[in-house]
Amino acid sequence: MSEEYVLKKGYTFRSFLAIFVAASLLLPVSIYIQLTSGAILASAITYITAILFTEISRLMDKPLTKQEIFIIYQAAAPVLLGAPFLEFVYRFYFFTSPISKSFYDPYSGKPLSEVIPEWWVPRLPATAVRSFLNSKWIIPVSLYLVQIFLWLIQEVALAYIMAYIFIEEEKLPYPFAEFPAQMCITLAEREEDRMRIFTTSAILGAIYSIILYGVPTISLGLFNTRIVVIPIPWLDLTTGPFGIENILPGAILGLATDPLTFTGAFLIPFHTVVYMFIGSIAVWVFGNYLTRTYLANYFKEWAIEWARGMTISTVYQRSFLRVWITPFIGFALAVAVFSIFKSRRSIVSAFKSLSRLRTDVLRKGYISLKTLATLYLAGSLGSILLFHLIVPDFPLWLAILIAIGGGFTYSLVASRSIAESGYPISIPYIWQLAVIGSGYPKVDAWLFSPMFSGLTPTVSQLGLPFTASPQWGNTIKAAFLTETRPEDFFKAYFTAVVLYTVFSFIYVSFFWSIAPIPSSLYPFTNIQWPVSVATSALWISRQIGVKVDTILYSFILVLAVAFIGDTLSRILNFPFSIVGLVAGTYILPANSISLIIGAIIARFLARMYGENWWRKNRGVIVAGVATGEAVVVGIATSIVMLSKATWILPW
After folding, report:
1. What is the average pLDDT across 555-582?
2. pLDDT tens across 336-354, in order?
C-alpha cells in the first residue's frame, strides 16, 4: 500500500440519515412482505436506498462520496433482514400452538408447551391481548437483546482476525466483494464508459426481472392470480414426466432462474466454480440416489419418506434432515483441519502481525490482537456466564468449548470459503448436536444457548443472522476497494441494529394488533411457521437422530480428498480447491448448474472483449444486473403494497 493511500470516512450525517429512513420508512414494507410472501427484500431495498440518496444528493449539487454510498449500501441491509420483535411473536405462537402441545418432553413426559419457562416466553393465554406492553415480556426481551449485543462484540473481533488472515496474509480474492464496491464507485464517480456498461446491464437485468418477478408479483397483488412466465426460483427438473426421479429416484435436479445466480459466476475463479459444480452433483444427484437405493438400510427414514412427485424443496428438506446433517458436519470439520494445516503459517504470521501492528496495517483500520482477543473473550465469556445463570445444570465445560472453540472454528472455515468461492461452508446444528451428545435431558438448553459464530437457532424464527463475521470479512475487503474505513461500517451497523430494534417494536406491534400471526392475513406465516414449530419440536423431543460414525467417515473421506488433491495439484500443476468442492455440497444442483453456465459465459466474454477489459468491468456488469433486479422487485412490491393499503377494514 502506497504512502498516499488513505482510507476515508463514510459514516457521516448523510449516510446516517439514509439508514434512518430505511429503518423508519422501509422496514414496515420489509416486515409485511416477509409475513405475506416470505420474500426478503433487503437486497432490493438497499440498492434502492443507495440509488435514491445518490440521486437526491446530486440534485442538491452535493454528491455523495463513494465511501458514503458504500456505508449506505452495506449498513441499510441489517435494517431490513428481519425484526427482532418478530422473534417474540414466533415464541408466543410456539407456546400456544397445538403443534407444540402434541409433542412431549422426554424428561418430564409433559407436552412441550407446559415445560417452556417464562424467561423465554410469558405464559399468556392464546386469547391474550396481542401486545408487548406487558411487564411479563421484560425478561425474555432483555435476555435476547443482551445476548445479541454480546454476539456482536464476538463477531466484530472475529471479522477483523479473519479478514487479516485471508486478505493480508493469504491474499484470497473475495469474489463477491467486487460487485458492491464497483456499484458504489460507479455511482459516485460517474465515469462515462463504466456508467454506460452499468446502465446497460441494469436495463437488461430489469427487463429480465420484470418477466421473472414483476409479472407474477403484480398479477397476484392486483388480480389474485399469479401469472408465472419463468419459474421462480428454479425450473424444477426433479419430478414430472421428464424428471430425474424417473432415472435416479431421490436425486435433485433443476435450473435456478435468478439472474444473479448466473452473473455471480463472473466473479468466481473458473476452476472454483467447476469444483462447486462437482460437489453439488455428487451430493444432491448421486448421493441422494445412492442413499435412497443401495444404502437404504442405513438411511431408512429417507428411504421411507421419499415418494415420486416430490419437488426440489421437499426432497431437499427430507434428505437434508435424514441424510446430510451429519455428513456435512464431517465435511466442514475436515475443511477446518485442512485449512488450519494449509494456513498454519499465515495464521501464525497474522497473529504475530496483529500483536505488533505496523504503520501500514494501522492505516488500513486493523485493531491490535490484544484488543480483538479482549473483545472476543468478553463477548464469549459474558454470553456463557449468562447462559450458565439461566441453564445452570448444563455442563459448563462443554458450553465453553462450543462457544469459544466452535465459534472460532466455524468462522475460520466459513471465512475461508467466502474468501475463495464467495459461498460459505457451514457446520450445521453445532449447538443441537452438543445438547444431544451431552445427554442433557431438559428443555431449557434448547431454548437458550451461549452465542457464537455459526449458531443455528433451534427454536427461532427471525432476527439477526448468526454467521456475521465471515460475511463481514467480505465487507472489509469491499471497504478497501472503495477506500472506506472499516470501522465506519461497524459504527453504522451498530446504529442500524439499534434503529431497527426500536422500529421493529413499533411496526411488529402494529401488524400483530391488526391480526394474529400466523393468520390468513399473513399467508406465509400460515404455511411456514407451523413447519418451523414442528421441526424444532422434533429436535427437542429427540426425534432427529445423529449418526456419529457417519460424521467420522465423512471427515476421513473429505480430509483424504483434500490432501490427495492438494498433493496432485502441486505435482501435476493443476488448480485444486477443496473449499470449492465442499462449498458445492451445500449448493443445490439448480444453483450449481446456473453457476457453471455463468462461468462458461464469462470465459466467452473474456475472450471476446479481452482479459483486461473483462477484469476491469465484470464487477460493474454484475452490479448493474443486481441494481436492475432490485429496482424492479422494489417497484413491484410497492405497487402491491399500495393496492392493498385500504384492504384491511376496522370491522
Report:
1. 91
2. 888 888 877 777 777 777 7
For residue 461, name the pLDDT band (cuts at 50, 70, 90): very low
Kindly tell me if the per-residue pLDDT of 526 is higher than 70: yes
- Would you list the DSSP string of 235-252? EE-SSSTT-GGGTSTT--
Contact yes or no for 626/260 (Cβ under 8 A): yes
C-alpha cell at 504: 421493529
Which string of b and e fits 180-219 if b means at least 16 CB within 10 Å? bbbbbbbbbeeeeebeebbeebbebbbebbbebbbbbbbb
Say if 68 falls within a structural domain.
Answer: no
Q: Where are the alpha helices (DSSP H) in 82-137?
A: 84-96, 98-102, 112-115
Residue 187 lies in a domain: no
DSSP 8-24: B----HHHHHHHHHIII
Count other Cβ atoms within 10 Å, centred on residue 494. 15
Distance of alpha carbon 3 from alpha carbon 366, whole angstroms:
17
The answer to whether residues 251 and 157 touch, using CB atoms and an 8 Å cutoff, is no
Tell how far CA 606 is from the center of its chain: 30
Domain residues for the domain of 327 are 83-173+231-609
Total tally of structural domains belonging to the chain = 1
The rounded distance, in Å, linking the Cα atoms of 509 and 447 is 23
C-alpha cell at position 159: 471479522
42-59 vs 27-37: helix crossing angle, rounded to 10: 150
Q: Write the CB contacts of 106 (distance below 8 Å, at least 6 apart in sequence).
A: 441, 541, 542
Question: Which residues have CB under 8 Å from 14's CB, separation 6+?
Answer: 53, 57, 64, 68
State which H helix or E strand residue 255 sits in. Answer: strand 254-256
Question: Are the CB atoms for 387 and 449 separated by under 8 Å?
Answer: yes
Instruction: Report the Cα–Cα distance between both ends of the chain, in Å, rounded.
Output: 66
Within a domain: 30:
no
Judge whether 569 lies within some domain.
Answer: yes
Say if residue 115 is exposed, middle or buried (CB neighbours under 10 Å; 0-12, 13-18, 19+).
middle
607: nearest Cα among 276, 270, 277: 270
Its pTM stands at 0.82
